[in-house]
Amino acid sequence: MGYSMKMSFALFFAFCMFLQGTLGEVICETLPTNLCSFAIASSGKRCVLENYKNDQGKLEYTCKTSEVVVERISGYIESDQCVNACGVDRSFVGISSDAFLAPQFTARLCSPACYQNCPNIVDLYFNLAAGEGVYLPALCEKQKANPRRAMLGLLSSGAAPGPVAVDSADFVADAPAPSFF
Which of 35, 75, 83, 98 has the fewest Cβ atoms nearer than 10 Å? Predict the structure, then answer.
C-alpha cells in the first residue's frame, strides 16, 4: 500500500471517528479544545473551555461540562460556519456579555446569517443579554436602525458602567425568549 493510500485511509478513519462523536454521544470532557466552545453535551449542558496551569507551569486548556442546561437541544457541536457568521471565537475562555460592547460583535450577532441560522449561539447570547437586562431582539432591531443608538441604549441599560443617560425601556428583558428550536 502506497503512502497516499495509507494517508487516505487514516483521514477516512479520523473523519469516521469525528462523525461518530458528532452524531453520537457528545461528552464535553472528551471534545478537543477547538470544538468545545458552543458545543452542547448529550446531557443538554453547555460545554465550556477552561484553562489551567500544568505541572510545568504552562497554560493548557480543557473542555468541561457546565451546569447551564440548554432547552430543546443536546449532543450538538456548533458549525464553523455559524462561529464565523456570528463573530464568536472558540478559543475564548469563558463567555461574557462584554462582547455586546463591541459594535462589530453586535452587528454580526444580529446579522441574518447568524441570527436566523445559528440558534445555539443566538440562544446563548440571548440569555447573556437577558442577564444584563437587555432584550436581544430589541437590541438587534436598534442595531439595524441605528448602531450608535443601540450601543448607547445598551450602555445605559446597566450592561456596562458608563455615564451615558438614554432611555433604555426598549432594551429591558421582560419578554419571553424567542423559540428557535
Answer: 98
96: in domain: yes
131: number of Cβ within 10 Å: 11
pLDDT (0 to 100) of residue 1: 55
pTM, to two decimals? 0.69
Which ranges in the chain belong to alpha helices (H)?
3-23, 33-36, 80-86, 103-110, 112-115, 119-131, 136-145, 147-154
Residues 22 and 91 in one domain: no
Measure the CA–CA gap between 28 and 42, rounded to whole angstroms: 9
Contact 41, 87 (CB under 8 A): no
d(CA 164, CA 9): 60
What is the maximum span of the chain, computed from C-alpha positions, in angstroms? 72
Would you say residue 170 has pLDDT above 50? no
As a whole number of angstroms, the distance between CA 76 and CA 38 comes to 8
Cell digits for 126?
A: 440571548
* pLDDT digits 0-9 by tens, 45-99: 999 999 999 999 999 999 999 999 998 899 999 999 999 999 999 998 878 888 8
